[in-house]
Amino acid sequence: xxxxxxxxxxxxxxxxxxxxxxxxxxxxxxxxxxxxxxxxxxxxxxxxxxxxxxxxxxxxxxxxxxxxxxxxxxxxxxxxxxxxxxxxxxxxxxxxxxxxxxxxxxxxxxxxxx
Length: 114
Fold this sequence. Notes:
- The chain has 114 residues and is mostly helical.
- Among the domains are: 21-56; 70-103, no CATH class.
- Helices cover 49% and strands 7% of the residues.
- It is built from four helices and two strands.
- A two-stranded antiparallel sheet has the order 1-2.
- A hairpin with a 7-residue loop joins strand 1 (73-76) and strand 2.
- The radius of gyration is 25 Å and the shape is elongated.
């Protein structure tokens, strides 16, 4: 008897159903990199790293948006690229207070060289 080809939906509808997102994520990786080969632990490691990076990027984006909206950071557009963020020097004291850090003096006090 010939083996039936299973549709993607019927495969994912099996009794012991893994997380569909995980299945697709792993499969997409191997489809994009057909010569890739790795162990269970290796695959779990790159999945974890990808997930952490994605989460950190989202957290960082939210924090940067919040800081720009409050005038603490500047967002400078870059043609054909990602914007660049920098401290809004007009609001430096507010930024220092919020960050609870002492500014580092780049100037030598009292004219002492060294």
